[in-house]
Design goal:
Oligomer: single chain
CATH architecture: 4-Layer Sandwich
Helix content: 10-25%
Distance between the termini: 38 Å
Order of helices and strands: HEEEEEHEHHEEEEEHEHEHHEEHEEE
Number of domains: 1
Structural class: alpha+beta
Length: 342
């Protein structure tokens, strides 16, 4: 589907009435496979890798970025986004890393799959669009291959824009190296866009928080494009027992150093919608943030020929209209992240 068709499809969705909760069966978790690059191909991981004794890691970096599926030149934009992420990872040494993407399309998945540093370092939760709620766009997560993945599942939200939560459970070990019987639960999500009456995002984040606070979850971290554009969005995290990493580091709402959308957009969008802190990292349980920053700021397509084509079509050269977010999260109580033996 090209960009104009995508825009037409979303315009049709916008004309629909707000969604309502239907059959409870529709919102049950859906298990899905994950993949690793082996023998020159991405292959489903069938058997859980063996546990490596003596993990020394109690922290991991989480990066999240909405790459924007609604504007053209997706392939060159994704190319510079991948290069930017590689440069960011080069600054953290051998630390563990997980990367969340929102607004992926099938071409983006193919580019991730063909990138050598991703092939060698990460599991992928998606090898195609087959597990997305929409056939046109969705979320995908890259997980450091040293981490022990226990399970991957999606929980559909009440939504008209086909949004869900992509969850990955990571094993943890006690201080003596034995399995702790709990998991670190990660949630990659893209909450409902725009304004609705009644609002939709409160119910979506409430559902996410319930899955983050299950008895078997030691700690949970949610990140993504939360589309926080209305006053009620500012308190959704605290109303659901979650903390906001940006705010925990002293960040302030309506601050230039917090905005993640509204800077790398056309002037008419700035005038109509202003700027907002759409992208966030939220958490709960036995985990605390050690650092936080925005990413993707000023990242542009630089190939002169492609830039010329973009300008001829009145397209901006930014990798995305969103900044991403990046934080280091640290487990408490001597707990370590379980490592798999590759």
């Amino acid at each position: 589907m090209d960009t104009k068709e995508m825009q037409a499809m979303l315009a049709a969705k916008m004309a629909e009435p707000p969604p309502t909760r239907g059959d409870p069966e529709a919102y049950k978790p859906r298990l899905q496979p994950y993949y690793r690059f082996l023998d020159n191909a991405w292959r489903e991981v069938v058997n859980t890798p063996h546990l490596e004794a003596g993990s020394r890691f109690s922290s991991f970096y989480l990066l999240s970025w909405n790459i924007d599926v609604l504007v053209p030149f997706g392939e060159p934009r994704m190319h510079v986004a991948i290069d930017h992420l590689e440069a960011l990872l080069s600054t953290i040494g051998d630390s563990l890393a997980v990367i969340f993407f929102q607004e992926m399309d099938s071409s983006d998945i193919q580019q991730l799959q063909s990138t050598p540093w991703i092939q060698s370092r990460f599991y992928m939760t998606d090898a195609s669009n087959s597990n997305w709620q929409s056939p046109y766009y969705g979320t995908t997560t890259l997980v450091d291959r040293r981490l022990q993945i226990q399970t991957v599942f999606r929980v559909p939200w009440v939504t008209k824009f086909e949004r869900d939560g992509l969850f990955v459970d990571i094993g943890v070990s006690s201080d003596d190296g034995s399995p702790a019987g709990h998991a670190v639960r990660l949630c990659n999500t893209h909450l409902e866009s725009l304004v609705a009456d009644p609002p939709v995002r409160p119910g979506q984040l409430q559902d996410a928080a319930e899955w983050m606070q299950k008895p078997n979850v030691l700690a949970a971290v949610l990140a993504g494009d939360l589309n926080a554009i209305e006053p009620f969005d500012r308190t959704l995290h605290s109303e659901n027992g979650l903390k906001d990493v940006y705010l925990e580091f002293g960040g302030r709402e309506d601050s230039d150093d917090g905005y993640t959308w509204g800077i790398q957009v056309p002037e008419w969008m700035k005038q109509r919608f202003g700027s907002s802190r759409m992208d966030k990292i939220l958490y709960c349980g036995d985990v605390t943030p050690r650092s936080f920053r925005r990413i993707g700021m000023g990242v542009k397509v630089e190939d002169p020929e492609i830039v010329k084509q973009m300008r001829e079509q009145d397209a901006l050269e930014w990798a995305s209209d969103h900044f991403g977010v990046m934080g280091e999260m640290v487990l408490g109580g001597g707990t370590k992240l379980s490592l798999s033996r590759l």
